[in-house]
Design a protein that fits this description.
By secondary structure, this protein is α/β, with parallel strands linked by helices. The chain has two domains: 258 residues, HUPs (Rossmann fold, 3-Layer(aba) Sandwich), CATH 3.40.50; 171 residues, no CATH class. It is 43% helix and 14% strand. Bound molecules: adenosine monophosphate (AMP) and zinc ion. Adenosine monophosphate binds next to helix 1 and strand 10.
Length: 489
């Protein structure tokens, strides 16, 4: 049984999708006026874990993530840079896709762009018209506003008591600096020099909240399973999405709302406006492995704030290294890596498969409890210790190594850490490796300086091709490992 903490009900609940075997998820995507920072990626990595976990347990997931390519900030950025809005955002959309790939975040099933969803069928204008038709929205001087007082459920997500505050004041900026209920904008009248679209109310552009209501319902249905994002989106963004969607359709909008807590720097939210941020690119330039960052972002439960430090990132690098060493050691022992090695298992075979199946079962049980990642990772490193022990005890036979490799491949599907990235060594590397092995197996090797030099040379050549050799004790196979960053020097 899978359980998630639902922001809407304020408690952990059993998860049951609306359509058997299928889960429909909407996650609020980036506003593409700049590179995303790693605080944003905490949210995207958490959502990716959610998706991977559901897929791993057998669900088909339909995941929609929007791209906000029109709002105050994108328009300001385009004007500042003297570019058309589309040209300006295109660059950051592309960068965002690259970052998703680098961090092994699965590509969403659909990534609608706000600017392409304004006047189409089932688009934003249609939704706004429906709200006006129902008396929930009203036009005023070329803009359209949502009448908050007309929706009795307003505040049910954020648990804000709004009755006293509802003044009918209008807020037409996308960002709110005060948390008070106010009629919010659905359609903004165009300002001089700004990009605009035709509408029944004249030229203008949609508000941020209507974008997400419209795109989520268009691609996932009027009621869908999960809506996720960072905690800053609970109010007003998601509260307003509920108000818009439910007032228009008369149906429940989303069944489970999941929100991750902030990534913090020295106790403060990482954000562009505070200037206390790292982008993924900043960290790559410092030599960090993107998978170490992914591990660091995943490693703290999503409902606990994550205090980001470079020391924490170094620890995450170590964790990745442990997983990596374990995998390549198994590959080398199994002979899958293209260099079949001969060695005799010394001890009674330990049945790793049964043990690893049990561990995987426990990990899935932990993740089923509102994505308890810390407990799942603790099990994972127990498994790594057990595999390493089996190898050290001489129980690295074909069956055990196959079980270990399958386990790690499964873990990769679940956590996306790119451990099982290669199982084939390029021919050239494998030839050099074999040649080196022969040199080292020469009975004269220990005494013959020439042979030792040759062995070192061959190691260097293998390294220059991006692979590392780790020598084992006599009679055991050396390990070949594909290089990662930083530590593989
Ligand atoms: P934005 O591009 O600002 O619309 O944000 C994209 C996603 O990142 C949203 O889900 C935000 O809630 C989330 N987010 C922004 N800053 C942080 C942070 N410091 N920690 C965690 N999530 C964040
Ligand atoms: Zn949204």
């Amino acid at each position: 049984m899978i359980r998630f903490f639902n922001t809407l009900t304020g408690q952990e609940e059993e998860f049951q999708p609306l359509h058997a075997g299928e889960v429909r998820i909407y996650t609020c995507g980036p506003t593409v006026y700049d590179y995303a920072h790693i605080g944003n990626f905490r949210a995207f990595v958490f959502e990716d874990l959610l998706r991977r976990f559901l897929e791993f347990t057998g669900y088909q997931v339909r995941h929609v993530m929007n791209i906000t390519d029109v709002d105050d900030k994108t328009i300001a950025g385009a004007i500042r840079n003297g570019k058309a809005l589309n040209d300006y955002t295109e660059f950051y959309i592309k960068s965002f896709q690259d970052d998703l790939n680098t961090l092994h975040i699965l590509t969403p099933t659909k990534q609608p762009r706000a600017t392409q969803e304004i006047s189409c069928a089932g688009g934003m204008i249609e939704l706004i018209r429906e709200l006006i038709h129902k008396g929930i929205a009203y036009e005023s001087e070329g803009s359209v506003y949502y009448r908050v007082a007309a929706f009795p459920g307003y505040g049910k997500l954020s648990k804000k008591k709004l009755e006293e505050n509802i003044q009918g004041a209008r807020v037409d900026v996308d960002e709110y600096d005060k948390e008070e209920a106010a009629d919010f904008v659905l359609w903004k009248k165009a300002k001089e020099g700004e990009p605009s679209w035709d509408s029944p109310w004249g030229k203008g552009r949609p508000g941020w909240h209507i974008e997400c209501s419209s795109m989520s319902m268009k691609y996932l249905g009027e009621t869908f399973d999960i809506h996720a994002g960072g905690e800053d989106l609970i109010f007003p963004h998601h509260e307003n999405e509920i108000a818009q969607s439910e007032a228009a359709t008369g149906k429940p909008f989303v069944r489970y709302w999941l929100h991750c807590k902030f990534l913090l720097v020295d106790g403060h939210k990482m954000s562009k406006s505070k200037g206390n941020f790292y982008t993924l690119r900043d960290l790559l330039a410092k030599g960090y492995d993107p998978m170490a960052l992914r591990f660091a972002l995943l490693g703290t439960h999503y409902r606990t704030p994550l205090n980001f430090t470079l020391d924490g990132l170094k620890e995450a690098s170590e964790a990745i290294r442990k997983l990596d060493d374990c995998y390549f050691q198994c590959l080398s022992y199994a002979g899958t890596i293209g260099v079949k090695q001969d060695f005799a298992a010394k001890a009674e075979t330990v049945p790793l498969k049964m043990f690893l199946d049990q561990i995987l079962g426990k990990m899935l049980a932990h993740l089923s409890a509102d994505l308890n990642i810390s407990a799942a990772f603790a099990e994972l490193f127990d498994a790594v210790r057990e595999i390493n022990k089996a190898v050290a005890q001489g129980a690295a036979d074909e069956m055990n190594m196959k079980a270990a490799l399958e386990f790690i491949q499964g873990i990769d599907r679940l956590f996306g850490l790119d451990i099982a990235r290669s199982d084939a060594v390029p021919q050239e590397v494998s030839d050099l490796f074999r040649e080196r092995k022969e040199v080292r197996y020469d009975p004269q090797f220990k005494r013959d300086k020439m042979l030792q030099q040759k062995s070192d040379e061959l190691r260097k050549r293998i390294e220059s091709l991006g692979w590392l050799v780790k020598d084992a004790r006599p009679g055991e196979p050396s390990t070949l490992k594909e290089k990662r960053r930083v530590w593989d020097k």
